[in-house]
Amino acid sequence: MLDNLSQINWAMLNARDLPDLLRTLRSNDLNKRRKASYKLGEYFREHARALNVIADIQDVLSTDAPVLATPFLLELLAVDDIDNKLQISRLLYTVSEYYLVERLNTQARRRAEIIHNTLLNDLDLFLDLLSHTSSETRANLIYMLGHFPEAQQRIVLSLLEWMENGLVEDEESQMAVCSITFKFLGDNIQNKDRYTKYLREWINSPLTTLSTKGDVAYFLIKLHGDDIDQNTVQLLCNIMKLPLSTNILTPLWDDCVDMFLQLSEPRCLNALLDIFDAQTDLQTIFDVVISLLAIYFNADKYQGIYYYVDQIDGRWVEIISHINANPLEFPLTKSQSIILQHLVDKSLIWEVETNIFRIFGLPSTRDELAKLIIQ
User: Residue 254: CB partners within 8 Å, gap ≥ 6?
Assistant: First the structure.
């Protein structure tokens, strides 16, 4: 095991400690394994891509050390009796990300591609492990499979077969499967139908937690657009109506709004108003207000809006960076009139001195806004 480690001159690669750290991953001492995993994570720059620190990835790829270390990590992962497959899978996930980084120099790009191809050649190992490893390791491996688009057909079919055999029981794996199969499906309608079948089973299962139901509803709507059934739309609306403390694990607001925009106008508007009318938390209310105004009152760049309200010294204060909105045009559309009526009727909004309506070319008082609706 790891016999060939000593045949490489690691010191010449500025990686003198790497062989001992790799050997320590097989130690019977849990603390030693953890320390070795941590130091290897540091060496491979575990969070560099997430933090967009390209210089760190260029640095680790400045020698052949990560290229030569990758086969040994694969060798360790394949061992049945090893206790820290999760840590090893995380290290493999890290090195698999190098291939996804743009703006690498020529040598770093070449090494990233070698690592990518080495992992791709061991795809069977990752797929085989899915059925007999811990839930965290399984989810980590599934997310790593998402780094191999050239094998997407094989990966999707393997995951679908895995699902059909009833092996997707833990929610971490469920969401990993959702994410990767959705990423890879494209226009493959046959697989899309099979995939949808199991998403619907998860969403209707009494064992599925509320946050996962929200995530699954999100995937279903993204997958089917305006063809999605109303029950799924309503399920996500119901989750988004919950207090923020309960709702925190469901998709982010911008993602949800983007998703609702894939629905036809009446369905999109009804979904957002359904959420808006149920809200009693001021911050969440203004989240929906800004979404409605941005979509239906011609904001040029909704994603660029930075807006929130907060309680400072016992009073509500709003902080706005900037919003690019076009001048209001008359007559108002039916949707605009409906939105304004809901805003007028929502008394909590008017407990805050707000400039948000003025920015969109709307009156800033409740009475003036009400008059605008009947023009």
Answer: 302, 303
